[in-house]
Design a protein that fits this description.
By secondary structure, this protein is mostly helical. 58% of the residues lie in helices and 0% in strands. The chain starts with 9 loop residues before the first helix and ends with a helix.
Length: 249
């Protein structure tokens, strides 16, 4: 468990913040990075931030452990080494969630936090794996995981093409996917592959650990050149390969 530290005095924190802002004012509004992170650490010291992060990580891992008769606080995992590794991953997951969640101004735009959140999620031992864009095989190398990855890449490729060319999703499907993946003009009830496509979109959002609306926003930002979307700007031969894998071929 994390060690206990005495909080910094309020007057010390106020003085530190004042120096930090005065220095920024003298440097065109730019904060001194070293001074900034020192202030953040001083502010958090002994005020429950590290403890909350540790508690969240522990709770995330322990829920996946076999039921135990041990009272809270005396939990003993069957495999202490594996439990420790999962706690490390869970801590990283929750740290990224807090730093990258709504705090859009701390991490660089080029850093895709969800990529590492998904990897940490998988290493936590969660039963529903998420997409591993770093190809570290944390989502599992079984056929189901590979098929979900292929489907997600096709969905994201369609979203990117839709945003980049300013067209409707059905048009993007026609330009990206093989003919069997095109919308059917006579499909009144939305059955057949159109229904499958809806399932793929929902599963992609779950696989990426986000909402479908967020995926669309990311695609639009990529189309404007604000973020990189390279893995999903697919060439036709890659689309064919992913299509066969996604469909179980």
């Amino acid at each position: 468990m994390s060690g206990e530290f005495q909080p910094r005095e309020r007057t010390d924190l106020e003085d530190g913040l004042r120096r930090l802002l005065d220095d920024a004012a003298a440097n065109g509004g730019q904060l001194d990075p070293e001074g900034y992170w020192k202030f953040v650490a001083d502010l958090a010291r002994g005020r429950g931030i590290a403890k909350e992060l540790e508690t969240a990580a522990f709770a995330a891992v322990i829920k996946n452990e076999p039921p135990s008769d041990e009272p809270p606080g005396q939990f003993k995992p069957d495999d202490p080494s594996e439990f420790w590794r999962r706690c490390q991953a869970a801590t990283l997951f929750h740290l990224l969630r807090r730093v990258a969640g709504d705090q859009k101004h701390i991490l660089p735009e080029s850093f895709r936090s969800f990529v590492w959140e998904n990897i940490a999620w998988n290493l936590m031992g969660e039963k529903s794996g998420r997409m591993d864009l770093m190809r570290l095989n944390t989502a599992g190398g079984d056929e189901r995981a590979l098929r979900r990855t292929a489907r997600a890449m096709l969905v994201l490729a369609v979203l990117y093409r839709k945003a980049r060319e300013g067209i409707r999703e059905n048009e993007a499907r026609e330009r990206v996917l093989p003919t069997p993946g095109h919308p059917r003009k006579d499909n009144i009830d939305g059955s057949g592959f159109d229904r499958t496509w809806r399932d793929w979109k929902a599963d992609t959002a779950a696989f990426m650990g986000t909402s479908f609306e967020q995926l669309q926003e990311e695609a639009e930002r990529a189309a404007r050149g604000e973020i990189w979307w390279g893995p999903f700007d697919l060439q036709p031969n890659k689309v064919d390969e992913l299509w066969n894998l996604a469909r179980g071929g």
